[in-house]
Amino acid sequence: MIKTQPIGEGIQKKIIHIDMDAFYASIEQRDHPEYRGKPVAVGYGEKRGVVAAASYEARKYGIHSAMPSVTALRKCPHLIFAMPRFDVYRNVSNQVMQVFHEYTRLVEPLSLDEAFLDVTVNYPGIRSATLIAKEIKQKIFNRTRLTASAGVSYNKFLAKIASDMRKPDGLFVIEPEKAEAFIDKLPVTKFFGVGKVTAARMEKLGIRTGHDLKQWSEIDLAREFGKAGISYYHFARGMDDREVESERVRKSLGAEETFLDDLDEMVDILGALDQIAREVHRRAEKRKFLAKTVTLKIKYADFT
User: Which of 118, 132, 143, 195 is least crowded, fewest Cβ atoms below 10 Å from its Cβ?
Assistant: First the structure.
């Protein structure tokens, strides 16, 4: 039996997850007609470059974000590299977020190109979340000439999964009465928080689908996977009580740099580290942040 989360007598939550389709790459294809229909990667094509985003045409070659540029070019020698234009991406993101706020104040951005919306109560007074999602997709396209995919359900877990079901330019709805059957067939790799390592552990335990996961008790899942196991227990039953947070508090910030040539000398390494640390300090000071934990990330010539 699927448990939903009522917010009042006879009222059920209506959650939408909107995810822009290949956001950075789609903007480049929009602004450069010669890129349309061709494999495009946003990033730097040099020796030390990394793919920041890939168009759907590029993804057909197995190219994805965070892939070294040299690897991407091996997979697709005619790949087009577009220099990142983050100011442009932020401006387009602001246009998209403005559309969301025309329907509800409960908007939770996850990044520049995706967000959760709680439209249980909405400004236009539209009862159908599916209709709202359709309107939002159309408004986004009218204003930006970009497509978005939308997922609609009664909680965040299912809405996010739904938005990935019909990409690109898709709309998928998971209704409460159909959620149980949907989750039972869902591969655990689609569950929030289940990455490659966790999926491999689950595979060894015979857990491949939501139905398999549902056979485990909350205690046993917590024993195997810690706090995340408790979340898996509830997700497998269609339960997710997380609220759409309209004002998420930023808990981290950072800076990084990719170098064209290896830094072999300690003096060069320390000099680069000093510059990056100063940039992090500048950003923290601007936001009046105090640091609790400092993390240093290093990548070698082979990108490990």
Answer: 195
